[in-house]
Amino acid sequence: MPSDKYEPGNKILLIGSSNTKPEQIEKTRIEYLDQVTETGTVDTKTLEQLNHETLPKSTYNAVHANNFSPIAFQHTPKQLTQLASTLIPGGILHLKEPILLSPRSSADGIEIPVTRTTQTLIIELKLAGFVDFNVKRAAKVEREELSYIVEYVWGFTGDTRNQLIDSLYGQLHIVAIDAKKPDYDVGTSFALPRKVLNGVKSDNNNKAAIWTLSVDDGEDEFGELENEDILLDEQDLVKPDKSSLIRPDCETNGKRKACKNCSCGLAEQLEVETKLKNPPISSCGNCSLGDAFRCSTCPYLGMPAFKPGEKVTLAGNLMQDDIEI
């Protein structure tokens, strides 16, 4: 007799595989029918049917998946999603699945149908939408049952069969997990409670009040706000004189001379004027044609085109400040 107890009117889904003996499923179906009575239902499916059939949504109180021997195949992510969808909110999935003690996709170079561990199976169940997991047990598959699975279910024969049995013995286990579907269904929506802000109840007709931050709101959470105007004194409000921005050691005794670490632009200005007074001799003959014809080391880069021998002059406002203080 199954250990799970159900109420009259409950709907149960039993899922086996094409290798499960029909009398196994039928015996369990009859026993559950006695619990749910004529007002409930106990339906049966196989894992293979889930690949091309759609289960009804939010229908079953419980699903028993792969609970019948031989337990030889793992559920695909699509199948787990289907099982979550067919359960009612709060419904329970009773699942059995073969797992490995350590993850791998092959054994001795032979690809096998089982790749998951208990941890990776739980991750797949979470991604499918299940919560509240109860891992009941992980029993080792004995050699006789393993031999039957490898040869008659997976279809390996000869030396390959023997290699798989030797490689998987002690590594292949059967885990039983109960997982719950959340108490809400996919796509469920509900209204959030309206928050009262400063005595104003939020609604669609008073959206501005929701996003209004008053001084009182700031004081409650952060204390009194500082007035930034009182942080400035009279000296901070005085505009600096332009002459005060030039370092005094840049121009001494009336001579225009840039200091060592000039930052006011005089050093660059004097460098340009020096080049204009002592024009370099062109090595390529293209200096006067403009930047499109000049080499990468041309001293005239950035200057306008000119006639050979002509003195290069810059615009009168080129070295003037863009912003007057």
Write the layout of secondary structure elements.
Blueprint: E1 11-16, H1 22-36, E2 41-46, H2 47-50, E3 60-65, H3 77-86, E4 87-100, E5 106-107, E6 110-111, H4 118-128, E7 131-140, H5 143-153, H6 158-168, E8 172-180, E9 196-197, E10 200-201, H7 207-210, H8 215-222, E11 251-252, E12 255-256, H9 266-277
Helix pairs in contact: 3-4, 5-6
Question: Which terms would index this structure?
Answer:
Rossmann fold, single chain, alpha/beta, SAM-dependent_MTases_sf, 6-stranded mixed β-sheet, 2660_t:CDS:1, 26% helix, 12 strands, mitochondrion, 325 residues, 2Fe-2S
Which structural class fits the helix and strand makeup? alpha/beta
Q: What is the overall silhouette? A: elongated
The counted number of beta strands is 12
Distance between the termini: 95 Å
Q: What percent strand?
A: 15-25%
Q: Please state the CA-atom Rg, rounded to the nearest Å.
A: 42 Å
Broad CATH class of the largest domain: Alpha Beta
The major pleated sheet works out as:
6 strands, mixed
Question: Uncertain segments of ≥5 residues (pLDDT<50)?
Answer: none
Number of helices: 9
Average pLDDT taken over every residue: 79
